[in-house]
Amino acid sequence: MRCPFCGNDDTQVKDSRPTEDNSAIRRRRFCPECGSRFTTFERVQLRDLIVVKRSGKRTPFDRDKLARSLQIALRKRPVEIERLERVVNSIVRRLESSGETEIPASQIGMMVMEALRTLDPVAYVRYASVYKNFREAKDFEEFVGQLDQDGEPVKI
Length: 156
What we know:
By secondary structure, this protein is of the alpha+beta class. It has helices spanning 63-73, 81-97, 105-119, 121-131, 137-145; strands spanning 12-18, 24-30, 37-43, 50-52, 58-60, 102-104. It folds into 2 domains: 7-44, no CATH class; 46-133. Helix content is 40%, strand content 19%. The longest helix has 17 residues, at 81-97.
């Protein structure tokens, strides 16, 4: 593993342990060249997934991009990092176990919407505003109007 500080290719693993949910291995590393310490995570990847965008463009699936989009929706919301990580792991597992290598971006978006709906209603509306491309206040009103008293969407 290359040192992110000095670029040295020969770093040493000082400690390895599984993460709390056993979905990855956390490794503490040391660079003998510059003396820096850093952490890496190793995850199992069942298959290479390709995301098919609306435009037809194909891009490699990026777990970090999925996590970032959830973090943005959940910004300043009372949701623990561990719950966010479990949601990301769950979505990735569902995608990998689907048997498909090419996944439509809309399918990933719907999975995120489902997860946010149960996790946090405000984050759900935030994500929906971008995912459904709200253009004006009326779009928000219509979407929020579809929510019932408990914050669950009304089935249409």
